[in-house]
Amino acid sequence: MTGASAAARSRLFGGRVGIEGATLVLFAGAIASYFLFPNHLALLTQFLVLMMFALSYDLLQGHGGIVSLGHAAFFGLGAYAAAILARTGYNDPLLGLAFAAVLSAVVALVLTPIIVRGNDFTRLLVTLGVASLVYEAANRMRGLTGGADGLPDFEIAPVLGLYKFDFEGRIAFIYAFMVFAMVYVFLWRVVTSPFGLALRGIRENTRRMPAIGSPVRRHLAVAYTLSGGIAGMAGAVLAQTSRFASLDMLGFERSAEIMMVATLGGSGHMAGVSFAALAFGWLKDVLSTASPKYWQLGLGIVLMLSVFVARGGIGGLLDHLRFRRSA
Amino acid sequence: MTPALSTQGISVHFGAFRAVDNVNLNVRPGARHALIGPNGAGKTALVHALTGSLSPTAGTIQVFGEEVSSRAEKDRVRRGLARTFQINQLFRGLSVLDNVVLAIMERDRKTAAFWRSVANDKRAHEAAREHLAFVNLTQHADREVRHLPYGSQRLLEIAIALATRPRILVLDEPAAGVPSGESHAIFERIHALPQDLTLLFIEHDMGLVFRFSDRISVLVAGQILIEGAPSEISSDERVKEIYLGRRAGHAA
Amino acid sequence: MSNVIVVLVDGVAYGMLLFLFAVGLSVTLGLMRFINLAHGAFAMGGAYLAVVLVNDGGLPFLLALPLVFMATGAAGALLERGVIRHLYDRGALQQVLFSIGLAFALSATATIAFGPQQQGVQIPSWLMGRHCVFGVQISGYRVFLVAAGAATAAALAYLFDYTLFGARIRAAVDNRVAAEGIGIKVDRLFVTTFAIGSALAGLGGALSIEMLGLDPTFAFKYLTMLLMIVAIGGAGSTEGLLMAALFLGVVDALFKYFLPEAGSFVIFGVLVAVLVVRPHGLRGRTA
Prior knowledge:
The complex is a heterotrimer. Chain B is α/β, with parallel strands linked by helices.
């Protein structure tokens, strides 16, 4: 390490040591879970999807400081894209993944002009409105999306023509893990790049950016496109591994959840956000199967409390542990 | 000789209020040009109009003879017109070094790259450290800006603007809010800037203005009252009456 | 032809309902700049209270309305004192997270207390009948809604635009320190305003049961539409809100009649389109 920008990195990424520690634990844990919980691979696959989705949103909120209440639109779009493509017979998983990513990214790019302008408040409204619009469109186009019944019954071809999706969900998990690892490394590159630095510049002071010659709108457009594309990939992986796409993948609740996960994880902290997604997914599974209404009550209370406790979120906690250890 | 910065009939009106009214300004290359005037005279509004963060109601602006009136703020920066802010506009959550690195990377148009690594760009970091050394912030390079003393933050304002490699630097009260003992240190740094860099600065402390400027424009109620060499300004009766007379006590 | 008139009248009544439903949000969001995504949940609370008072308590519907108004207003005041005042300077994201959490919690509480099924409320029979006005059949409840909406609009426009109270609240939101400096009791002002917003939410909810139904999903079902109506109306402007609500009510009714398969797609499309063209609302006061 060159010693360059160490202070910022220690805050953003938990520092060289801390982040590698947390990231290593994350990946080691993911691999270990495959062997430790062979009967829960479907659930573990869902956790990987949730982490991908959270990381895609964190690029916007955590790094760019751009809030959105409609990010599930891209997730659901990717899910439907993969499902619909598979139903038409093109059921290669990687083809579906690429198709979903490109479609979601293009839609995100097209929406950029109306999303990147204005303040937080208009942005929240517009994203919420656009997501509602996409939801209603999917609800109405029953022929394509199956409406409220969702899209079941499609087959996904073996990965690379070799590895057939099995009933135990082993291949599904490995497939999801590979995509997750790719997304994680890619986003890691993005946030440590000059572009990532410019995004944090926008978050820290939007007003100064044009005064140093920065094309703020273009940066936001790129961030939105990347984020939308990755959210679409997460949705596609969920649809392909569960062989189902449904309206709730586009819903408001999913958008609100991911905003919460990114915030609780410590905005802009990739490992922290991943762990928050994991914790959230696990709690949701345990509690919502026990009692959906108490889950919603608990979720609400946690959300309210989260505003008042632990500003740095889980990521901040990880940093704290690291500093204690090195002290 | 082509002026570094010139305006014709620049006006900024907010409804019936004329913050800037028909200002013609010429700043010669390499000048140390001070813009003075009482509070509310429209100095900051004029700076906003010059740099493009505010659209003027009327008038045109040229940078080294090139028309920039219809250019966006970021494009004026790319043509060599940079500024600092009266109220700090820093990237508070980033390190001091990253504040400057970011400005350098934007200037070099490297920020579209989302596949490269910031840390590997040695040249940008070296250049950033040079700027920090110039404003005596080397020892703070790795600190987060929000933890920096206020006086150092004012210097960082200047370092960020310098990192855009300007030909003209507009300094909006560079020592605003700094105790008078420290403000001299800030102006000493400004004085040490390369002679070919054109400076236009707003300052209230007349001692500093007369010491560091070679040209002065006096803005009153949105209009240029008089422009001239410091000796002409200090001997002008109107300036004494409406401006210096009232502020003589503060200037001491 | 008379069909179209019936549709238009329906649209106006629906628009008035949207107005009553959204006006409390316009107060908290527009005047206080607090992003309250729990507004739909407040309305739901008012609606359930009305159901309890009328169906279980045997109170007449019209008597239940002012009680609901006062009860939700008091609840809002308590909430503002307890929690929400700590959120004013915390940024949009924190306000959104908190209020979504509140809405989830209230919605879950409603499910726990009342179950997921639809609720109805007994409306007095003289309000339920259909009346023939100039050859057009109009239900009494719609006439009632239009009257209630007009009265609320007039009262609020007067309160916020023509009294010192309105001027004070604007001053306090613009610059709290300066407002306190000239002797405005900002704390008291904010709690009053938030209570008014909450009370109006409860009232709007109680009035909506008859036309929109009531179940625990009510907390979120209409939230997007309400937020967008407020944004389009120009947050904080009573007249703007009324115009926006009536416009949407009529557009929605026309499409439901002539192009029913489009559903609420059209209304969201119109809302997004307006927000894109006029990001600061129809009346253009910057938020």
